[in-house]
Amino acid sequence: MTEPALGVVWDGTGYGADGTIWGGEFLLGDAGGYQRVAHLRPFRLPGGEAAIHEPARTALGLLYEMHGERVLEDSDLQPVTTFCASDRRMLVQMLERSINSPLTTSAGRPV
């Protein structure tokens, strides 16, 4: 078969060709190679690997991507209220400054 195929990859985490963490990708390719044609919207994982083990961090990273610092005002959302006020401020500062908060397009996976 010489026709290219579209692969949809919904997995945990792994570094992609651009050095960011992939995991929610649409790849078009054949036996000779591939091209990344689409992906989930990139967002930051506050705490890096800690976000894999604490899903609320991942959710906070997604909410921050959508709402910025205003996410701290959403005190009715569980990913926000999971953390005490000082931890929320610290996590948002990590996201704002890209400190220990790598970019990802990962769909995640259960731990």
In short:
Helix content is 32%, strand content 29%.
H/E element string? EEEEHHHHE
* Structural class determined from secondary elements: alpha+beta
Task: Choose one word for the global shape.
Answer: elongated
Overall pLDDT, averaged? 89
Query: What is the number of beta strands?
Result: 5
pLDDT < 50 runs, ≥5 residues: none
Beta-strand residue fraction: 25-35%
Strand order of the largest sheet: 1-2-3
Helix content: 25-40%
Sheet with most strands: 3 strands, antiparallel
Domains, number: 2
Radius of gyration: 16 Å
Individual helix count: 4
**In whole angstroms, how far apart are the ends?**
37 Å
Fill in the keyword field for this structure.
111 residues, two-stranded antiparallel ribbon, alpha+beta, three-stranded antiparallel sheet, 4 helices
Please outline the helices and strands.
Layout: E1 5-15, E2 21-30, E3 33-39, E4 43-44, H1 49-53, H2 55-67, H3 78-81, H4 85-97, E5 103-104
Antiparallel strand pairs: 1-2, 2-3, 4-5
Explain what you see.
By secondary structure, the chain is an alpha+beta fold. It folds into two domains: 5-39, no CATH class; 43-104, no CATH class. Helices cover 32% and strands 29% of the residues. 24% of the residues are buried.
